[in-house]
Amino acid sequence: MTSSVTLAPETTVAIIGAGRLGGVLARALRAQGIVVYGPLGRGGGVPDVDIAILCVPDSAIPDPAASARRTATRIGHVSGATPLDDVDFSVHPLQTFTGAESPDVFHGIGAAISGRTLDDQRLAEQLARTLGASPFEIDDVHRAGYHAAASFASNFVLTVLDAAEQLAASAGISSDEARDLLAPLIRRTFDNWQSGGAAASLTGPIARGDEVTIARQRAAVDEADPALTSLFDELAAATRAIAREKAAA
Ligand SMILES: NC(=O)c1ccc[n+]([C@@H]2O[C@H](COP(=O)([O-])OP(=O)(O)OC[C@H]3O[C@@H](n4cnc5c(N)ncnc54)[C@H](OP(=O)(O)O)[C@@H]3O)[C@@H](O)[C@H]2O)c1
């Protein structure tokens, strides 16, 4: 089927995949008056709909896409990294979802959109705007890099915060207390980065060129958990590069 679809209250949408994002997306579209089927699990078939949106793991997209092709006029996915090989459009909400979020979770966030045709691109844009998100275009060539940026901004931040929590525990601070104590530091660092970028925001021993303190920190990390030493070394090397950028500015 090749006819175009425009999003309207009577438009029918099937959400395929009842995981973290599928349920939230179904609730949010329903809240906007769209007729939503699902989120649909495995093996249930896809009803005749205008739009099917795949909310399955990236590697699982081809099979349900082929099934949905039989009954849906247009098919999209919500994957940041996956090209449009099996679908007509993509809407990738630039947010992290655990599944418990309310429908307004999409308000004000970015959404990477793309479409095989201009009509598909417009449909992706309409979906993003209907959710309250701000659409921006991303093409297949740049998808993986764009998605890696999102992983650095969310997944890897958690990796670093978890290391901080572990090191605080080795200094006798409980996990709950560490998260409460570190949160204001994290928030201010984030605010500074948002307004001026990393080089302008960098403080601490690396920014001061204080090699004695860096060496003492490294030894403490090695003693607390040797598994964190290589992470410390990699992060210190990357942070030194930012400090050099700051010095050259
Ligand atoms: N979560 C996020 O923060 C987030 C953010 C932006 C974009 N996304 C995108 O959203 C998509 C889904 O991610 P997720 O985090 O929601 O994953 P998830 O929590 O793992 O959920 C995926 C769901 O898809 C189901 N599934 C797998 N194969 C299926 C099939 N053939 N037919 C029907 N359902 C099938 C899985 O069922 P089983 O449990 O039975 O395998 C599971 O319920 C991915 O493309 C991801 O890139 C996620």
Gyration radius, rounded: 22 Å
Q: Report the mean per-residue pLDDT as an integer.
A: 95
Strand content: 15-25%
Instruction: Provide the succession of SSEs.
Output: EHEEHEEEHEHHHHHHH
Query: For the record, what is the CATH homologous superfamily label of the largest domain?
Result: NAD(P)-binding Rossmann-like Domain
Q: Which quaternary structure do these chains form?
A: single chain
CA-based shape: elongated
SSE-based structural type: alpha/beta
Biggest sheet, spatial arrangement of strands: 2-1-3-4-5-6-7
Largest sheet: 7 strands, mixed
Provide the helix percentage. 40-55%
Q: What's the CATH topology name of the largest domain?
A: Rossmann fold
What key attributes describe this structure?
Rossmann fold; 2 domains; 50% helix; single chain; N-(1-d-carboxylethyl)-l-norvaline Dehydrogenase, domain 2; alpha/beta; 249 residues; binds NADP nicotinamide-adenine-dinucleotide phosphate
